[in-house]
Amino acid sequence: MSTQTAPKTTTAADYLAFERKSEEKHEFVNGQIRLMSGASRNHNRIAANIGTLLGVGLKGKPCEHFISDMRVKVASGGRYTYPDLSVVCGGPEFEDDVLDTLLNPNAIFEILSKSTAEYDRGDKFASYRNLPSLKEYLLVSQDAPQVEHFTRLDDGAWRFNPTEGLDSEVRLVTAEVVLTLRDIYDKVSFEGKEN
Question: Is this prediction's pTM over 0.85?
């Protein structure tokens, strides 16, 4: 693995060659390579909880989930991201035989932080909406038990379903999995209180 410095601007092919040798993760947006920052305890706990719930909920179904190390190619022009979690049903498609860049996620989860919330709700979601396979986008707060669930309708419009409170649940349409917020937020601390 390399710790080389990322070039300021590059092509998608150069980004992939660089990224596959890097010890750190980088997103690729508009010809720019962006270093990704580390995650908080709450972020990691939530991601682990959702991953576990998806693993159990998808058992025996023609779907699989990926954690944040699976890169997603969002645009042919070369936008690449690392969603916190993604789900694909009916078989994953990859960019090449390295099998590290997913092309057809059906659901994407992003765990919000103060530094990424605006990007995740704005530019990143706008970009994700261009993925024909994407049917669901879930933004998970790490500061309170809240999930913003967006579902693509048959006419291409997006429906917003906010969910709040530990006694609530989120139903994944694409994978027919129910996630309770109590399980998503197991062992997550809000303002110094353990749940």
Answer: yes
